[in-house]
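Colleagues,

For the teaching module next term, I've prepared a clean inverse folding example: a structure given as tokens, and then the sequence designed for it. I'd like students to try predicting residues themselves before seeing the answer, so please don't circulate the second half yet.
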């Protein structure tokens, strides 16, 4: 993704436009080596009702660490992307969506506190978590699942 292209597009939109940033990952095996593909997306929801434009970035790395580390890496990537576009958002709404579940019965719950604290510390607002995070759970998930290994 060309971050500058996303920023320039955001600047051309109205103050009613909503911007969502999310990240998801998928673990796959390639020639016997476990790899993680991270997909970070910026969704610009034009006027909050007139369709959207999606900008995506894919990064594949060797898998390392437990699930909690991978989930926190998703929060790092989403937070970094949001931090880069934040100065250009103006009065538009900005949300960070994370593919982490607040429900203690779900495996991804182990990263909720750390991810929320990171986003809050970096950006000054709370991220959205499952099930209220469709950009991470849907859009970024789709990018990650179709990316080449």
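(Answer key — instructors only)
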């Amino acid at each position: 993704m060309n971050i500058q292209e996303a920023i320039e597009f955001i600047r051309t939109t109205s103050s009613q436009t909503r911007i969502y940033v999310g990240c998801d990952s998928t673990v796959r095996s390639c020639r016997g080596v476990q790899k993680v593909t991270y997909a970070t997306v910026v969704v610009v929801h034009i006027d909050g009702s007139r369709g959207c434009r999606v900008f995506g970035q894919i990064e594949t790395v060797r898998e390392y660490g437990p699930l909690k580390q991978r989930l926190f890496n998703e929060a790092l990537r989403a937070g970094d992307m949001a931090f880069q576009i934040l100065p250009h958002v103006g009065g538009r709404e900005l949300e960070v969506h994370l593919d982490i579940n607040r429900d203690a019965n779900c495996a991804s719950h182990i990263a909720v506190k750390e991810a929320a604290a990171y986003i809050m510390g970096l950006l000054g607002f709370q991220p959205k978590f499952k099930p209220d995070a469709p950009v991470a759970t849907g859009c970024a998930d789709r990018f990650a699942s179709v990316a080449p290994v």
